[in-house]
Amino acid sequence: MAPVRFILIAAAIACIGCTGQKGETPPVQEPSASAAVRQPLMFHWSEEFGREVVSPIGRTLPAQMSKPAGLDLPELPANRPLLFVRWPRVPKVNSSSWIVLAASRAGGPYDLLCTDTNFDGRLSDEMAIHSGAITPSSYVRYRAAETLAVWGPVKMAATAPADRSSARTGQPVSEPFHVMFTLEDRGPAAGQDRYWLNLQSCDWREGQVKIGQGTFVVTLRDFDVDGRFDDVTTEDSIGDYINMRPIANAQSVEEEGRFIGRFIEVEHQYYEFQVAPDGSWVSFRPAVRVPVGTIHVDKSVAGFSVFGPSGHFECHPVGGLAQVPVGRYRVRTYGLAATGSDGVGWTMWSWLPPAEKPFDVNAGHTVQSDLGGPLQLTIADRVRGGRRHHLMCHVLSAAGDPLVPLRQEQPRLPMLHIRNDDGSYDSRFPTSLESLRSSYGWDLQSIMWTEPTDRKGPFTATLETDAPFEFVSKPLVIKGNSGS
Ligand SMILES: [Ca+2]
Ligand SMILES: [Ca+2]
Q: What is the pLDDT along the chain (484 residues), one digit of tens a residue?
C-alpha cells in the first residue's frame, strides 16, 4: 500500500505549485429558497481488503501485555502472553472495549483475535477468530514490522439495537459494520511498543448527490471505525471522511477526500453540511455570511490544509494569508516551495505534522502559524559503543515536523556525508524514503554505517542537500572505536 500512498502524496505535491484557481474566500451566495434537502446514500461493504474508496487509514492502537482489571475472558490458549488492545469509543455510547490476541500454537505467531462483536460489554461470550493471513510484512522496507496478521472483515452487530445509539443524537445506527484488523509486529527492538493493531472500516456509504448546480458521487467513509459516519475531529485518527467526485469524472482516480465538518467547500462555495449518524443521508445547503478568520503563514508555505469541526479546507495563501471559517483546527498537510538557481522548483511536504497542535481561528482575527523554516538537517545515532551505527537522518521544520525535499524534475534526496579529520575517509551515502510509523507521512530512511577499521576517528556526519531552502545543519560527531 505504501507506493499508493506515495503516489497520493506526489500528486498532492504536484498541486502545491499550481497557481490556485481558488480564491481565499469562496463567494457568498444568496440562501437557497428551499430548506436543506436530505439526499440518500446507499450502504456498501467490501470483503476486499484494502479497497480504497477513500483513504482507509483507520486507527492504529497499541497493544499491552498487562491484563485490564475485571476483564472476563473466554478460554484462550496460553502459548504466548496475551495481548490486550483498548478500543476507545466503540459505538456503545462512547465506551471502550478490549480486543485480545493469542497464539494458537506454542512458538507460533499471534493468530487468534477476540473482540466484543455484539457490544454486550463482555468478551466471555465471544469465539476467538483465527487469522486468515500471516504474511511477511509488505511494510518491511519502510517499517521495522516483521509480520502482519490479518483478521476480517469481522462483522460487528449489536444484539439490541439500542446499544448502538449515537451518543450525540440518540438516533440508532441501523447497519452492522465490518472491520479489518491487522497486527503489526515491530520486532523486539521496539520494546513495549512492539505490537500495534490497525483497524480499518470495510464499509462505505455512496450515492449521487446534487450540490449547487452540479451532481457528484459522494462517498462517506467511517474513517475512525465506530460504525458511524458523522464524527468530526481535530485528532489524527478520529473523525469521518467524505469524498466528492463530479459525476462526469466519477471513474477518475479518487482523490484523498477530506474530513467532514460543519462546512464543506465545493467549487468555491461554502455549504452547510449535515449527515445522518448512520450515513443514510447527507444535505448541502449554501452557507451565507460565514464568519471567517485569517491564518498567517511564512511566505515559503505554498499550500496547507486544516481540519476541525468547522470543516477540512485546502488553503492557498496569498501574501502568506488564507481565510477559513472560524473554528478550532489542526494542520493536516503543508507544503513549502522554492525555486533553485537553475530555475527548477523544489517542494517540501509534511503530512500530519506532529509538531502542529490544534489552534483557534476567531472571526476577524489573524492567527500566526509556525509552519516552515528555517529548517533543520539533523542526524542521530541509535547505536553507541559499537562499530555499527544506525544513523537517523531528518529534515525537520523549525517546529520539528519531518519533511522531504523533492526536486520537481527528478527526486533528489539529501546525501549523508561522512568523513574523518585526517581526510583518509570521505564517503557519501544516498538517502531513501520510508513511511512514517502511525501516520501517513514520509521521512528519510535511516542508514546503517559501519566504521572502517583501518581509518582513524572521529568521524563527522553531515546531511547535505542542494534544496533551495534556508537550513540549519546539525552535524553528528562519531568518536570512533577503530584501533581500540
Ligand atoms: Ca460480547
Ligand atoms: Ca465514525
A: 333 333 344 444 444 333 333 334 444 444 444 568 999 999 888 665 444 443 456 788 999 999 999 899 999 999 999 999 999 866 544 466 899 999 999 988 899 999 998 888 889 999 999 997 666 544 433 344 556 788 878 888 876 544 444 444 444 445 688 888 888 887 776 778 889 998 888 888 999 999 999 999 999 988 888 888 998 877 756 789 898 988 887 666 556 688 999 999 998 999 999 999 889 999 999 999 999 999 999 888 999 999 999 999 999 999 999 999 999 999 988 999 999 999 999 998 887 788 888 999 999 999 999 887 789 999 998 876 678 898 999 999 988 888 888 888 888 899 999 999 999 999 999 998 876 654 556 778 889 999 998 998 899 999 999 999 999 999 999 987 654 4
Please report whether residue 414 resides in a domain: yes
CA 44 to ligand 2 center in whole angstroms: 15
Task: Give the domain CATH number at 433.
Answer: 2.60.40
Residue 40 lies in a domain: no
Query: How far is the centre of ligand 1, averaged over its atoms, from the C-alpha of 49 (Å)?
Result: 25
Ligand showing the shortest atom-to-Cα distance for residue 90:
2
Last residue of one domain, picked from the residues 167, 183, 201: 201
Q: Determine the Cα–Cα distance for residues 300 and 317; give it in Å rounded to an integer.
A: 10
Identify residues whose C-beta is under 5 A from ligand 2, the ion.
222, 224, 226, 228, 231, 240
Q: How far is the CA of 324 from the centre of ligand 2 (A)?
A: 24
- Nearest listed ligand to the Cα of residue 116: 1
- Structural domain total, the chain: 2
Output the CA 116–ligand 1 centroid distance in Å: 4
Closest ligand to C-alpha of residue 125 is: 1
- Its pTM stands at 0.78
Q: Please check whether residue 351 lies inside any domain of the structure.
A: no
In a domain, 28, yes or no: no
Which residue range is the domain that position 397 belongs to?
375-478
**Long-range Cβ contacts of 311-319 (<8 Å, 24+ apart):** 311/258, 311/259, 311/260, 311/261, 311/262, 311/263, 311/264, 311/265, 311/273, 312/258, 312/259, 312/260, 312/261, 312/264, 313/265, 314/22, 314/265, 315/24, 316/20, 316/22, 316/24, 317/24, 318/24
**Span from the CA of 94 to the centroid of ligand 1 (angstroms):** 16
The bound ligand whose nearest atom lies closest to the alpha carbon of 156 is 1
